[in-house]
Amino acid sequence: MKYETVIGLEVHLHLATDSKAFCGCSTEFGQRPNSQSCPVCMGLPGSLPVLNEKAFQYAIKAALALNCKIQDLVKFDRKNYYYPDLPKNFQISQYDMPLSYDGFLEVASKERRKKIRIRRVHMEEDAGKLVHPEKGFNSLVDYNRSGIPLLEIVTEPDLSSPQEAYDYLTALKAILKYLKVSDCDMEKGSLRCDANISVREEGSSKLGAKVELKNMNSFKGVRDALDYEIDRQINFLEEGGKITQETRLWDAENGVTISMRYKEESEDYRYFPEPDLVPFIPDKKLIDGINEGMPELPQARLNRFLKEYGLSEYDASHLTSEAQTADYFEECVKFYPNPKAISNWITGDIASHLNLKNLTIRELGVSPEKIASLLKMIDDGAINGKIAKEVLEEMIVTGISPQEIVKLKGLTQISDVLELERIIEEVLKKNAKSVEDYIGGKKNAFMHLVGQVMRQTKGKASPAVVNEILKKRLKDRSS
Ligand SMILES: [Zn+2]
Fold first, then answer.
1. Average pLDDT estimate for 149-167
2. Separation of 36 CA from ligand 1 center, angstroms?
3. What number is the average pLDDT over the span 24-46?
4. Strand pairing partners for 100?
5. At residue 367, does pLDDT exceed 80?
6. How far apart are CA 201 and CA 469, in angstroms?
7. In terms of CB atoms within 10 Å, which of 82, 278, 311, 469 comes out highest?
8. What separation in Å is there between the alpha carbon of 293 and the centre of ligand 1?
9. DSSP 224-263
10. Distance between Cα 149 and ligand 1 center (Å)
11. Residue 413 — very low, low, confident or very high, per pLDDT cuts 50/70/90?
């Protein structure tokens, strides 16, 4: 029997506001436990929530970027349940009238572009955090996170493979970061993702019972958990089992999912309108203003980079995956109008330095102007490409200009023909065997000789000049 997979994703996102969703407490990460809470986010008697305007604007911005319709009336609801990290016994959320609905996100994968429908984007608040120390029997609770504004972004079950889910998350994160509405840092819990997955016989129109997967803390984790779950469900069905709706936890260490609880239905939460927050009609002017101020989004920027700079799809998508990388690239182009060369450096040497040091391109501390002057020095023949890599490394460490580094370290390229001729003559004398090999037809002996010249000059020789002289000298010797 052949099976197909149906996946829907639910993303929870911390909105990057300074204060919480319904009170003035700070949202700063990593502070002393329970130093950022107040009667409102603790749900103490007599306290009343007030909606954070910035959080509302960020939510609208994200919803519009995801092509959603905005609800005519904004209404909040209480989602009731007990858990020690939720002292109010309810979470302020949105139930039957989500802030926005019916959107989509276009996801480009290797083979095709696909529209993933977005069912709803709504606002809610985060709960506190339980801490379970390894020693002792007590668990602790930290309410600093209680009431941080969250955006929940729910897709329709339009995703049909773990890789597609991964691509969707990557595209979604890129947009959210372009909008600057969240830092999207999964390690800090600013972006969390749950997945609903079911399998069914190929061609069947009926959806199978869905399993909700939780506890994935990277996009790769989401993909791995889905991969595992597809195999598990198919094997179970093949053995005659019946899948039941449940919630399972991803155990990344062992690469398995573990049953946590049978999934509750929304009726179980006894939603009702939040009586402390009056429903309101969002200001049309505000929405229009947010729409007008929308930045160029990743997909549009990628298309422009392909057209305007003639880059490959690979390079353009690397450069536009983060707004600051794309900005950096465009600033470099202003100083040095050779987009292809700049792209090669950013996606090559600069990217490896960033990966190695786990930094963003701005944190590297090398200005676009300095990168431009480094590339100009190669064009002018002052240094060759190999030395330029060395200079870049030095620029990153010291922060000084490429000209100064070349001067201080004596790295200027040797293009002086007379001097190179002298060095080459010496190399040919010392490597008589290679010369013989080359004349005898072993063409790769040439590269060995070039290598020797480069060694003699500590890499500073102009490769073009060396090649030219060397070819001429070898030709003289063979005739
Ligand atoms: Zn508070």
1. 96
2. 7
3. 95
4. 70, 121
5. yes
6. 70
7. 311
8. 30
9. HHHHHHHHHHHHHHHTT-----EEEEEETTTTEEEEEEEP
10. 11
11. confident
* Residue 129 dihedral angles phi and psi, to the nearest 5°: -130, 130
C-alpha span between 324 and 34 (Å, rounded): 34
Q: Ligand 1 centre and the CA of 194: distance in Å?
A: 27
Look up residue 151 and give its DSSP letter. Answer: E
Report residue 150's pLDDT band, with 50, 70 and 90 as the boundaries: very high
Looking at residue 439, what is its pLDDT? 87
How many A from CA of 61 to the centre of ligand 1? 24
Encoded tokens for 214: 């939780």
Question: Where do the H-state alpha helices sit in 380-431?
Answer: 385-398, 402-409, 417-430
Number of neighbours of residue 31 by Cβ within 10 angstroms: 12
The pLDDT value recorded for residue 111 is 67
325: pLDDT strictly greater than 80:
yes
| Helix (DSSP H) and strand (DSSP E) numbers for the chain | 17, 14
> Quick one: 427 exposed, middle or buried, by C-beta within 10 A (0-12, 13-18, 19+)?
buried
CA distance 71 to 101: 8
Residue 177 CA to ligand 1 center (angstroms) comes to 26
* Single pTM value for the model: 0.82
Distance 88 CA to ligand 1 centre (A): 12
**What does the pLDDT read at residue 385?**
86
Span from the CA of 186 to the centroid of ligand 1 (angstroms) = 23
- What percentage of the chain exceeds 70 in pLDDT? 99
Q: For residue 50, what are its two tokens? A: 């007030």
Domains plus CATH for the chain? 3-288 (no CATH), 296-409 (no CATH), 417-478 (1.10.10.410)
Q: What is the pLDDT of residues 380-391, one digit of tens each?
A: 878 888 889 989
CA of 184 to the centre of ligand 1 (A): 22
- Separation of CA 140 and ligand 1 centre (Å): 19
